[in-house]
Design goal:
About 30% of the residues lie in helices and about 20% in strands. By secondary structure, the chain is α/β, with parallel strands linked by helices. It is globular and about 60 Å long.
C-alpha cells in the first residue's frame, strides 16, 4: 500500500476534555465509537496509524478495538502540538518520513482524501500538504467559519482567509461563483517529520492572530503548503448536535 520512497504514519490527536463536546472521541456513532470510525477509515490508506491522547479512557477504548495509541502531555494548545509530541515519541521506535495529522472528530475521513495528501509528497520539495475542495454554494463562500485558500500555479497555498478570496471587483457578490473558482480549506495536514518539529517551535504570527488560522503562522515563516484537491467533504463532529447529521449519513450510506 505504501510508497517505497516515502514512509507515512497517521496520527489522530484525541483529547477527552473538549470544551464544546467533552468526551467526544468515546461517543457512540452507529455501532462504533467516533474514534474507532476515524481510526479504521485512516487504516484504509495508511499502514501505521496511532491515536495520540492524554486520557486513559481514550487509550483503553483504542486498545479495546485493537488500535495503537501513544500517551502525550495534557497541556497542548493544538492538535498539531500533540501530533508533534507523538511523532517525537514514536520516532524512537519506528521509522517514518511524513506524518499525516487526522482530526479525531472526522469519522468519515476517506481513503481518497488521505491518498491525495500522500501524493503531494511525490514532490521531494513538499514540506506540508493539505486538502481543499471547490466551493459550490454561496453559503460556504461567505461563511467565515469555513476558511478559504488561494493557490499558485504549482498548487502551493498563497493565503488562507475566513473571507471569500479573491475579491471579485465590480461584480455583485451573488455572482462571484460564476466568475471564479473558489476553494474551501479542509483541516487535514501532512508534514515531513523534521518540518513538524520545526513549526511547533514558531511563535504565533500577526496574520494567524488576526484570522485565528494556525496555518498562516507557517506561511508567514516561509514554509510552503502544497494543496491537493478533493471532491469529498466529510462530516465533522464539533458539538453534540452534529451527531444527528452523522447518524443520517450512516443510515443513507448503509454503514
Amino acid at each position: 500500500m505504501e510508497s517505497t520512497k516515502t514512509k507515512f504514519i497517521g496520527i489522530i490527536p484525541a483529547r477527552y476534555a473538549s470544551t464544546r463536546f467533552p468526551g467526544k472521541p468515546l461517543v457512540k456513532l452507529g455501532d462504533k465509537l467516533i474514534i474507532q470510525h476515524v481510526y479504521e477509515n485512516a487504516e484504509k490508506a495508511i499502514d501505521d496509524v496511532w491515536v495520540a491522547t492524554d486520557d486513559e479512557r481514550i487509550a483503553k477504548a483504542v486498545a479495546g478495538f485493537g488500535g495503537k495509541y501513544v500517551m502525550t502531555r495534557d497541556d497542548h494548545q493544538s492538535g498539531t502540538d500533540r501530533c508533534a509530541e507523538a511523532a517525537a515519541l514514536l520516532s524512537a521506535e519506528i521509522q517514518f518520513d511524513v506524518v499525516i495529522n487526522i482530526q479525531g472528530d472526522e469519522p468519515f475521513v476517506r481513503q481518497e482524501q488521505l491518498n491525495a495528501l500522500k501524493s503531494c509528497f511525490d514532490d521531494s520539495e513538499t514540506e506540508i500538504a493539505t486538502l481543499v475542495k471547490q466551493i459550490e454554494s454561496y453559503e460556504v463562500l461567505f461563511n467565515t467559519n469555513r476558511p478559504k485558500v488561494v493557490m499558485d500555479r504549482n498548487q502551493n497555498a498563497l493565503l488562507f482567509s475566513r473571507e471569500a478570496i479573491p475579491h471579485i471587483r465590480d461584480e455583485e457578490r451573488e455572482k462571484w461563483l460564476t466568475r471564479h473558482d473558489f476553494f474551501s480549506h479542509l483541516g487535514m495536514y501532512a508534514y515531513r517529520k523534521e518540518v513538524l518539529e520545526q513549526i511547533t517551535l514558531l511563535l504565533p504570527s500577526r496574520l494567524e492572530l488576526a484570522e485565528s488560522l494556525e496555518q498562516l503562522r507557517w506561511l508567514e515563516n516561509g514554509y510552503r503548503i502544497k494543496v491537493a484537491k478533493t471532491s469529498f467533504e466529510s462530516i465533522g463532529i464539533d458539538i453534540p448536535e452534529d451527531l444527528t447529521a452523522a447518524e443520517k449519513f450512516i443510515a443513507k450510506n448503509g454503514m
